[in-house]
Every structure is written in C-alpha cells, then in structure tokens.
Amino acid sequence: MKLINLGETNSILNKFIAQMRDIEIQKDSLRFRRNLERTGEIFAYEISKKLAYTTKDVETPLGIAQCSTHDNDIVIGTILRAGLPLHNGILNFFDDAQNAFVAAYRKYDKEGNFEIRTEYASTPTLEGKTLILADTMLATGSSLQIVYERLCSDYGKPEYTHLVCPIASQYAVEHVKKHLRGERITLWVAAIDEELTTHSYIVPGLGDAGDLAYGCKI
C-alpha cells in the first residue's frame, strides 16, 4: 500500500484543514461542509494524475482537437454520514462516476469497548473498476478496513483503490498498512496526528466530523 500525505506540501489544502480544525470556525456548519467538499475536490484532482489516459479526437465547431481523457471506470464510495461532503467534492470532479454508500458505526458495550457494524450498503459492482473510498477521519483504521473488505467480498474486487481520509492517526495508518498489505491501494491523507485517546479519538483531530457537518446525534 502506498501512502500520500498532501499536507506535507504547502498548498491551499492546508488552509481548509486548519479551518476545519478551528473550534471557532467549526461553529459554522455550512463552512465546515464546504471546506470538506473543497478538500474532496483537491484530492480528486491529485488522484486524477494517477489514472490511465488515452488521446481522443474531439470535434469542435472549427476542427478536430486531440484531448487526453482518463479511461478508468470510477466508483466513489463513502462511509456515512461524515463522508458525504467529502464525497460531493470528489464527485464534482469525477461527475460521471458511479456511487456507493456504506453505513458503518461503533457499537459500544458497557465497558466502553466497541465493534464496527456495517448494516447498510448500496453500491454498483466494483469488479475491475477504480474505487475511491472516502471517510473524513481515520482513527483506528478498523472501519475503513472492514468496509473495504465487505465491499470486495460482496460486490467484486476493484482493479485499484484510492482511500481518501483527510485526518488520520499514526496508529490507523499503520493498521491499514498492515491489514491491506499487498493490495493495489493508495491511502491519501492531508494530516497525520500522533495521539489516539483510550476512546479512539484523534488528538488534536477536529472532533466529530459528522456532528460538525450535520448536527449532534442521540
């Protein structure tokens, strides 16, 4: 598995990440969603550089232009609900892509331990396609691993997979590397934070992305 951290290069992306982390700016949920969407657009642009291209003749009103366009059959997959604005940003660039949605959540027991449950999935076949699987936070890496494995098991094996997780913990990065080893996968992040609390929250992180985007849940 290949790791690409776009936050290591100075760009406008770092401004969007900083605003999403900022406790004062976070009070504006519309701005939080928009920054997450713009982050998705930047990831989509960078991913587009890794696709396969061929040159095609395009007829214009005055002649024929040769244009290079990608050949990949893309599916954008998202883990609900926090990933939706990120998904929209990626879809803004890959506007002809198919789409997949998976609900994954933590089920806690009385001792505070949790397991990952995935009870809903809506997706086209993934066999031989390029999968872009997006989730805003990569805390332990378990959700992403379980969702990816379920998608491959139930809907076919992608030709290549791009995992898009703007904020990740170092623990999660190592977990994904270990459990998805040897796969045709690139993990894209914008920041890697060192600390993970006993309740598996990223520090400094940005809080609960789903709540910040869509309001608190019960």
UniProtKB/TrEMBL annotation:
Q: Which InterPro entries match?
A: PRTase-like, PRTase_dom, PyrR_bifunctional
Q: What is this protein called?
A: Uracil phosphoribosyltransferase
Top-rank taxon:
Bacteria
* Stretches assigned to the Phosphoribosyltransferase domain: 12-215
Q: Which UniProt keywords apply?
A: Glycosyltransferase, Transferase
Q: Which organism is it from?
A: Candidatus Merdivivens pullistercoris
Q: Which residues cross the membrane?
A: none
Gene Ontology MF term list? uracil phosphoribosyltransferase activity
EC number(s) stated in the UniProt entry for this protein: 2.4.2.9
